[in-house]
Write a structure and sequence with these properties.
- By secondary structure, the protein is of the alpha/beta class.
- The chain has two domains: 4-129 and 377-435, NAD(P)-binding Rossmann-like Domain (Rossmann fold, 3-Layer(aba) Sandwich); 131-376, Rossmann fold.
- It is built from eleven helices and 18 strands.
- The protein has helices at residues 23-33, 49-55, 100-108, 131-152, 171-188, 206-215, 249-252, 264-269, 304-310, 378-398, 412-415, and strands spanning 4-7, 36-39, 58-59, 68-70, 85-87, 112-114, 198-202, 220-223, 242-247, 253-255, 274-276, 287-290, 321-324, 346-350, 355-358, 366-368, 418-421, 424-425.
- The strands form three sheets. Strands 3-2-1-4-5-6-17-18 form an eight-stranded mixed β-sheet, with helices on both faces. An eight-stranded mixed β-sheet has the order 8-9-7-12-13-16-14-15. A two-stranded antiparallel sheet has the order 10-11.
- Strand 17 and strand 18 (424-425) form a beta hairpin.
- Helix 1 (23-33) runs parallel beside helix 10 (378-398) and helix 4 (131-152) packs across helix 6 (206-215).
Length: 437
């Protein structure tokens, strides 16, 4: 029914508390756009059912009368409404093996799939994202994981005072805790037995910027990547500061032909001509936070073979934690073996066994691999996400999805985001056919 949208209950994982649209957004859609909104009840969503009801929404399990159904994470296969339009993060555009059954079911049920990840402007920049919040939480949790690792090594660390982000009442409270750690670090410094804290941040976009924003709450000394390669660099690092090093693509990628400069556009067009050189920096790093975009065929930042060699001695390397915010399984961080949930977020990768053990103990790096970090600050993340989504909702509610793809009346960024329609992949996504089971 045109003019009606649905908001589904997030059922993939009970730790998922976000919503695509908040009660505040729903109230505006009803009062200002004259839309009808149906919200599935949820016991886990950060916003109670009554808040949506008070905003004017209908609370109901059945979303079959909705023109388009809004969600956040992947929809379990039995919960897809045949012939209906759904919009959510499908994690299918890279041909991810684990979600190809989802894409196949979408095609079989003739679902129209729109994916937030592919809503871009005419310059290719994403318009609808949680990226900054993934960066905020990923950085806080990486510092927390580092503090927990130091505690197991019997080292008194100011970072051991930090909690996981979802243990704070709000993002602001979590940030204040980071600031307090910084004050402690500035005044007292690190104890003699504590390793220097050298944080590498990789990426070009909103995720990495969010992580940088949190890192900058600490007393930092900004370094350029090449400074890490100087002789005795570690011995000169301050005990009262975090050493922060931001790596852009040009810093960790090189053309295979010596002397050929790195050119970003050429890299994405001919990635096989480039190789990663990030590993030469690793012996000087304590924490690595990865927010870099990766797709199959692109170089890996850290490989299993490298990390096995790096941890091949009994002596503890400087490296303690990898916060893999991008969380591509066996992707840019090849030894990220599985995504984790917020209620059990970290594991140690054991290089000798090519295996993992949950927690922070073991001879290997701690890996933070939560694939939905913004859900740890669900109220703030949902509000920011829904605010940028709001201007487009009415157009999707009024679109006649029974029309052929070419005739769909959608805003241009959302037309580009239609991956499947009426049982077929749309022209920009025909490449996904080769990945389907």
């Amino acid at each position: 029914m045109t003019g009606t949208i649905g908001i589904r209950s997030e059922t993939k994982d009970t730790t998922e508390k976000r919503a695509a649209l908040t009660p505040e957004h729903v109230k505006k859609l009803i009062n200002e756009q004259n839309l009808k909104v149906v919200v599935q009840p949820s016991n886990y969503r950060i916003f109670p059912n009554d808040a949506y009801r008070e905003a004017g929404a209908v609370i109901a399990d059945d979303l079959n009368d909705c023109n388009i159904i809004y969600g956040v994470k992947e929809v379990p296969l039995p919960e897809l409404y045949a012939g209906k339009a759904h919009i959510f993060f499908s994690h299918t555009i890279k041909g991810q093996d684990y979600n190809m059954p989802l894409l196949k079911e979408i095609l079989q049920k003739k679902v129209t799939l729109l994916d937030y990840e592919t809503v871009v402007n005419d310059k290719g920049r994403r318009l609808i994202f949680f990226g900054n919040f993934a960066g905020y939480v990923g950085m806080i949790n990486s510092l927390w994981a580092f503090g927990q690792r130091m505690k197991t090594e019997g080292i008194d660390s100011p970072f051991s005072e930090l909690k996981q982000t979802n243990q704070y009442e709000s993002l602001d409270e979590a940030k204040k805790a980071v600031i307090e750690v910084g004050k402690n670090l500035r005044t007292k410094g690190l104890p003699p037995e504590h390793p220097p804290v050298v944080v590498a941040l990789l990426g070009e976009g909103n995720v990495t910027q969010g992580a940088i924003d949190v890192a900058d709450l600490l007393p930092v000394q900004q370094l350029q990547p090449e400074e890490l390669l100087a002789e005795n660099a570690v011995s000169r690092f301050s005990k009262h500061r975090v050493q922060k090093v931001v790596f852009h693509l040009k810093h960790w990628l090189e053309h295979k032909e010596p002397g050929t400069p790195f050119i970003e556009k050429e890299y994405f067009a001919k990635s096989a001509d480039y190789h990663a050189v990030f590993e030469k920096y690793v012996e000087k790093l304590t924490i690595i936070v990865n927010g870099n975009f990766w797709a199959p065929g692109l170089p890996k930042i850290l490989t299993k073979s490298f990390i096995k060699a790096h941890f091949s001695t009994e002596k503890q390397p400087l490296l303690r934690v990898i916060g893999d915010i991008s969380c591509d399984i066996e992707g840019s961080v090849e030894f990220n073996l599985q995504a984790t949930k917020s209620d059990n977020p970290i594991y140690v990768y054991l290089p000798e066994k090519d295996d993992l053990v949950f927690g922070v103990q073991g001879h290997g790096p701690v890996v933070l691999a939560v694939d939905k970090l913004p859900s740890e600050v669900p109220r703030e993340a949902s509000h920011a996400f829904g605010t940028v989504l709001l201007p487009f909702v009415a157009a999707t509610a009024e679109c006649d999805f029974t029309q052929p793809f070419e005739k769909l009346q959608l805003p241009a960024p959302f037309k580009k985001a239609v991956i499947a329609h009426q049982g077929h992949l749309t022209p920009d996504y025909h490449y996904l056919e080769k990945y389907l089971p």
